[in-house]
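Researcher: Please predict.
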Amino acid sequence: MRFNTEAPFWQFMGTLARFTALNLVFLVTLLPIVTIGPAQAALYSTLFQYDEHDDIRLVHEYLKRFKREFKQGLISGLLLLALVAVLIFGLAFWVAWDTNAAYVPLIILVAASVAVLFLAEYLFPLQARFANSVGRTWKLAALFPWRAFACSFALVGIDVVVLGLAYFVPFIRVLMLIFGLSWVAYAKSLILLWGFKKYGGYGEVERPTYVNANSGL
C-alpha cells in the first residue's frame, strides 16, 4: 500500500502543522508584551504572502518579517499600549467618580475606546502591507475603519465570536493556544486584503521576501 502524501487528508495535516508551528512562534515572540507590534505586523505580513503563495515556509518567513518590521512595529506597539493604558486609567477614574456629571466623560471614554479598537484592527496590517512611515500608518489606521465600515464590522465580529467561544468553551482556549490565533489572523487577513483592494492603495506594497518551499514549516 502506497503512502500518498498528496491525499487531501495529509495535505490538511501538513497545513495544520505549519500553522501550529507559526502560532507557537508567534506566541513566543509575543511574550515580552512590548513586542506586540512587531509580532502582529510580522504575522499579517506572512499571511498576506501565504494568501498569494501558499507554499511559502511560514515560520521562516515570519522570523524574517519579524526582524524587518521590528523597529516600526515596536514604536507603534508602545504607542498603542500607552493609549490603552490611558483609557484603562480613565475608566478606573470614572468608576471612582460618583456624580451625575460622570456620564459625560463616560460617553467620551466609550467613543475613544471604540476608535482605538478600530485603529488597532488596522494599524499592524497596514504596516505589514504597505511601505509607509509610522505617522502615515497611524493616520491611515485612524481613517480607514470609517471608510471601510463593512470590513471593520467583519473584523470586530470575528474577534467577538472568537472571544465569546474562548470564554464559554474551555477547550477552545486550548485550541487557540495551539494553532487558533494563526487561523483567526488568516481569516482576518482575507478580509483585510479584500478591503485594501476595494478601497484603493495606501502606499507601495512591501516587496515580498518569500522563498517557495513545498515542504517544511
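Model: The chain has one domain: 10-199.
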